[in-house]
Design the sequence.
């Protein structure tokens, strides 16, 4: 199956969405689908010499997102990231995070997103990672640091290039414990109130 995908004969497997659903419906369910996804990502990242299907990662990652599988089926989807350019990776990573909020190497995910302050997908990806359930005792310092860097870059853009999703990221950072951002908002509101005519 993996060989068929890597050598450009993925059509032999039928519709990718149906293939994922069939795989997840079999023995092991979501765990089996996730394991296969991880193996596929590993092999496509190695890029064998006889590989001809250059968009395998995008096609099969998109298909697993479209298949409506339970969250556990996407646990290893992030392994595709290294094989994809940012413009392809960002929307897929954002969709994956909505579907399965838990992330491996969450700090690296947000660090990569932070290089794209103009992209709504990058800002929303950071929001979803910030608001995901975190195991008790886990430390999310890297996620918050990279999310703050993304917010600063987004808010530094001129109005035409600034995404409305920056406000959502600011809110998510405040809710994650970045209380100084809330203090900044309060101070700005006070200054605006005083500067209004009649105040």
Sequence:
């Amino acid at each position: 199956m993996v060989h068929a995908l890597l050598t450009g004969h993925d059509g032999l497997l039928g519709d990718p969405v149906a293939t994922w659903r069939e795989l997840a419906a079999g023995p092991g369910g979501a765990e089996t689908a996730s394991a296969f996804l991880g193996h596929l990502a590993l092999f496509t990242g190695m890029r064998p010499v006889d590989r001809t299907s250059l968009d395998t990662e995008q096609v099969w990652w998109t298909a697993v997102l479209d298949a409506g599988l339970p969250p556990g089926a996407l646990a290893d989807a992030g392994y595709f990231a290294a094989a994809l350019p940012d413009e392809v990776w960002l929307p897929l990573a954002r969709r994956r995070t909505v579907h399965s909020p838990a992330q491996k190497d969450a700090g690296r995910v947000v660090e990569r997103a932070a290089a794209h302050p103009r992209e709504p997908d990058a800002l929303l990806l950071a929001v979803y990672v910030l608001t995901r359930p975190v195991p008790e005792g886990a430390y999310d310092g890297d996620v918050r640091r990279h999310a703050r860097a993304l917010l600063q870059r987004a808010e530094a853009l001129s109005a035409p290039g600034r995404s409305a999703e920056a406000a959502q990221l600011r809110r998510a950072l405040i809710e994650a414990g970045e209380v100084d951002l809330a203090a900044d908002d309060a101070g700005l509101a006070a200054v605006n109130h005083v500067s209004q005519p009649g105040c």
